[in-house]
Each structure stands twice: as C-alpha cells, then as structure tokens.
C-alpha cells in the first residue's frame, strides 16, 4: 500500500509526459501483480481446505470400514445366523450415527468397538 501511495505521489508531482506514462504503466503492472498474488493466495487456501476435507472423509470412510469388519466378525461368531442378520443391519445404522460424532476417526478403535458392541 505504501508503494502505491508513493507512486501516486510521483505521478502527481511529475510534469514530464514520458515519465508520467512510465509511472502509470509501472503502477498498473504493480496492481496486476498484487491482484494475481491475492488470487493465488485465495486459491491455495481454498485448495488446502478441500484437501483437508478430502483427508477427513477418507479417514472416516476407512475407520467406518474397519469397525464394520471387526464388529461383523464378532456378530457372526457370537450369534446365530438369524440373529446375526438383524444385528448386522442394526450395526450399519449405528455406524451411520457414529460417523456424525466429532472426532470419529480420531477415537481409539478399541473404545469404539466396545461402545458399539455394548449397545
């Protein structure tokens, strides 16, 4: 901002047409570079946000699949087949609720298995 104010002062102070054109051109280029820099910073911030969201989605999907596998094995080894089918359906519904909890992918798997199996 200081450079733009300084350039503005130089433009106002000059009376030479060639110098005036050169100063205006330099100010225009500086403005374009500034706008491009702001646009790039905005794009990088937006991309970083998307990358973080994608990593979170992947972590949640991975954790959900891991829990489903572990709990499915428990269900099918401990229950009769008719009960296991019902329990598996209930597990799928419970996992859909669990993924909505804050920190779902960060909580220890063992804690999640115990909590879900207990329910």
Count of β-strands: 0
Indicate how many domains the architecture comprises.
1
How much of the polypeptide forms β-strand, as a percent range? under 5%
Query: What is the radius of gyration?
Result: 30 Å
Q: Name the average pLDDT.
A: 90
Categorize the overall geometry: rod-shaped
Proportion of residues in helical segments: over 70%
Strand count, sense and barrel status of the largest sheet are: none
Secondary structure tally, helices: 4
Intertermini distance:
61 Å
H/E element order: HHHH
Identify low-pLDDT runs.
Answer: none
Task: State the secondary-structure class.
Answer: mainly alpha
Describe the 3D structure.
- The protein has 119 residues and is an all-alpha fold.
- It has one domain (2-118).
- The chain has four helices and no strands.
- Helix 1 packs antiparallel against helix 2 and helix 2 runs antiparallel to helix 3 (81-98).
- The N and C termini lie far apart (61 Å).
- The model has no long low-confidence stretch (mean pLDDT 90).
Short description:
By secondary structure, the chain is an all-alpha fold.
Features:
single chain, 119 residues, mainly alpha, rod-shaped
Question: What's the SSE blueprint?
Answer:
Elements: H1 2-13, H2 17-78, H3 81-98, H4 109-118
